[in-house]
Specification:
With 151 residues, the chain is of the alpha/beta class. It has helices at residues 20-29, 31-34, 43-55, 72-81, 101-113, 122-129; strands at 10-15, 38-41, 61-64, 87-91, 118-119. The termini are far apart.
Length: 151
């Protein structure tokens, strides 16, 4: 299922505490593909991702920001605004309240506003990471437009 892409992507990986095991499992499943890309992670998630990949003998470039509650989600949102993130995988714990909900919503909003694909579950993450559009040099994502709709 994994494919090697020619374009080196910068991929943000974020997972809430109760989704971290799911993220580690997803990263292991996609280790070969991820090995060709730069990973930006929130703090705790980044440490787990790095350890899981090293155990598999895969050592991609990984940058760890602060943990989510300490500003990591906001740091990644800033990178989205600066056009430094190509894809975000954010495994959200929708069943439990988060103390930094405002930062979570900001990251999701900035991905939408700046047209950065964001997957919030493993299935959509698998679909996005394996998309052949990443290697199609003729494909240019359309910038979103925010104009009133006229009938």
């Amino acid at each position: 299922m994994n494919i090697s892409m020619h374009k080196k992507l910068t991929i943000a990986l974020v997972a809430h505490d109760r989704r971290k095991a799911d993220m580690v499992d997803w990263v292991r499943f996609n280790a070969e593909t991820l090995s060709h890309h730069k990973l930006i992670c929130t703090g705790t998630t980044g440490g787990l991702v790095k350890r899981a990949l090293e155990e598999m003998g895969v050592v991609p470039e990984i940058t760890c920001m602060h943990s989510g509650p300490m500003g990591g989600d906001a740091e990644i949102a800033a990178l989205v605004v600066q056009k430094q993130i190509d894809l975000a995988i954010f495994l959200i714990d929708d069943l439990n309240p988060q103390p930094h909900e405002a930062d979570i919503q900001m990251l999701l909003r900035q991905c939408r506003v700046h047209n950065v694909p964001i997957a919030c579950n493993r299935y959509s993450a698998d679909l996005m990471i394996t998309s052949t559009l990443w290697d199609d040099t003729s494909y240019v994502p359309t910038e979103p437009t925010y104009v009133p709709f006229e009938r």
